[in-house]
Amino acid sequence: MKKLFYLAFCAAAALSFGCVAITYPLITDNAGQGVYVVNTNGKAHLIEKTQTSLSDGTTTVEYVAFVDQAASGHQKLTDYELQLATGTTNFHSDTYCNPDWTGCAWFTHNYTPPGQCTFYDSGSNLNFNCLTFLTAFGTCPQTRNGECGRQFKAPGHLTGSELSSLINMGVERGTNLNFNFNANNTHITLQNPTGSITSVKLAGNTEVKFNLAHGTAFVDVSSPTHAQNIKNGANLIDKGFRVGVATLTYGNVTRNINYTALPSDVYRKNLLQRGQ
User: What are the E-state strand segments in 99-194?
Assistant: First the structure.
């Protein structure tokens, strides 16, 4: 059930954006409390709190991230886009600690933690040819979710009352819990590095389908609601909120996340190319 955390907050923050990691905390021993820096000896899969697929009805994609950390602590983080068969939820699996990767590497970031929370750090590289929907919303976690083969119980889990509240906001349909995100139940404020604060106004209603059996969430990006929320987000980027801290409230559960976004024109251009 810990995966409901990002269902409520990453999905609410990005809605039809894809939440991706662009920095990651230093990996050490003893569940992150030790003093010895871990050498991953290659790419380690970052275990997602929830896996969200984006689909426009013809193409379905998910994002998956890997980090390669040296004994010095230097990291190379790589984000891949994986295209899935339409209507499937064939996510990257950690059932047997799957360290393999495939797909198109659309973002790489070389840095030493904590690193800069931006897509345009000096050690980063973007390849838009590998990004189908161009609606990526970057996050910079402060605590580790766990890595393939090195997973541990990270702090900051939901309390019992928070978990109960989130479950009660969902509508059970078979093995799914369906959640609605709209201006009545979801409230988002952004604070940029200069201290300015703004509220994010959500258009219409966005439904997110959460599969309880697989811990996966599905978002339809073909709707007019999706396009309007992307445009609203692009307008806020123009007003100086491309990077900062988002305070997200869904029902009566609130969390803060560090975020960053691509330039506003990237999002608008992609919508135009898709007729939205």
Answer: 104-111, 124-126, 136-139, 171-173, 176-181, 186-191
206, two tokens: 């966005």
Q: What is the CA radius of gyration of the chain?
A: 18
DSSP 219: E
At 91-142, the pLDDT tens digits run: 566 555 666 677 789 999 999 999 999 999 999 999 988 888 777 788 888 8
pTM of the model: 0.70
Cis ω for the linkage preceding 113 (within 30 of 0)? no
pLDDT digits (tens, 9 = 90+) for 172-211: 888 788 888 899 988 899 999 999 999 998 899 988 887 7
Distances (CA, A) of 212 to 82, 158, 243: 22, 17, 32
- The residue whose two tokens read 């590095």 is 193
Specify the DSSP element, H or E, that contains 262.
Answer: none
Q: What is the residue type of 93? A: S
Distance of CA 197 to the CA centre of its chain: 22
Q: What is the helix, strand, coil percentage profile of the chain, to 5?
A: 20, 35, 45
Tokens of 124: 């980063």
